[in-house]
Amino acid sequence: MISVIKFVILLVAVTFVPLSALANNYVVDKDKSQLTFSGVHAGNDFDGVFEEWSADIIFDAQDLENSAINATIMPKSAATGNKMYDGTLPQKDWFDVKNHSEITFSSSEIKATEAGLYQAIGTINVKEISKPFTMDFALDSQENGAMKATSEFEINRLDFDIGKKSDPKAEWVSEIIRMKLDVIAAPQGE
Amino acid sequence: MSAVSNTKYNLIAIALHWVMAICFFIMLGAGFAMSNLEFDPSLKFQIYQWHKSGGVLLLLAFFFRIVWRLFKPPPPLPNGLPALDVKAAKLGHYGLYALMIAMPLTGWLMVSASVYGLPTIVFDLFEWPHIPGIAGNEAIENIANRAHFILGILFSLMIAAHIGAVIKHHLKDKINLMPRMIPWRKAYKNLKEKD
Q1: What was the ipTM of the complex prediction?
Q2: Phi-psi region of B28 (alpha: psi -120 to 50; beta: other; left: phi over 0)
Q3: Which domains are assigned to chain A?
Q4: Structural domain total, chain B
Q5: Is the pTM value of this prediction over 0.90?
Q6: Which residue, of A46, B47, B77, B112, is most buried by count of CB atoms within 10 Å of its CB?
Q7: Residue range B67-75: average pLDDT?
Q8: From the candidates A97, A166, A167, which should be mutated to test the interface with B, based on the most B CB atoms within 10 A?
């Protein structure tokens, strides 16, 4: 009789536990993670880092259907170390941080492409302009169940009206901005 | 008739005149080059930033020069200048001073209204603020840009006239004005002062 009750409880549990709970919630280790950008201005390379961002990561390689990545970046935290650039980036024609405080990415699908390589397919939103976006990333297992995700991708700043009036022909600032992502995240509770 | 009067500008005024004159040549040259010529964008960007920095310093120098002039008036004009020339000289100098202030002000207006939103960091040392409330205002930027250009041409012409007048007085009126602005040149004697 007791084994029957146990079985019923188990059955109920399996049926009602949301599927997403099976995938792991990952917590980003901010000290070891970095989101950087780089481009060319007036023939000179520049690079910078977004100092404030966050990501909700639910991931299970065995359950990609219920895996998801949602990231929020604060454009006002973009820092290049160059006073001229740092003074310009928040301005209206660039990030316009007064009116648009967040850049967001949310995935709608995560696919495995090769061993250790994945694609997050979703939408990126910059200055209220949403574009479909696919981010390729690689995953490496770390100690204690943590994962390291790395990704490099390009953004065309003109797709999001960044510097649209100042430099629509990219005579000063390259239209392609390279992004680099290094994230270390550990499953929640570990 | 008075005793021999001081016919030289004072040393500070002389220094301001020549240092600012050299700056004006560099600024006008750089201004025309960066807005009209095609060359290495890295250098061009740098010249724009130097030009903005120079404009801030010249704006500050202008105020110092005006205050200095109020406290230490220039020497009287030499005798023998035709009355019309005295009037023209006065008008010319007012014009030069007006342009000395109008140039940096229109530049500042243009930079403040620019859609670029680039800050002005004076020779990488300190940030000079933008005129508030006009950031990204294309109408103001266009007017200020046009004005800065036209005034730049006018300033170049006025400087040419200023130099031309010195040459004219030297050759035609036989009055050498240069010692007034050169510390080590012997001052002429102005026996009878004009006003």
Answers
A1: 0.79
A2: alpha
A3: 20-187 (2.40.128.110)
A4: 1
A5: no
A6: B112
A7: 94
A8: A166
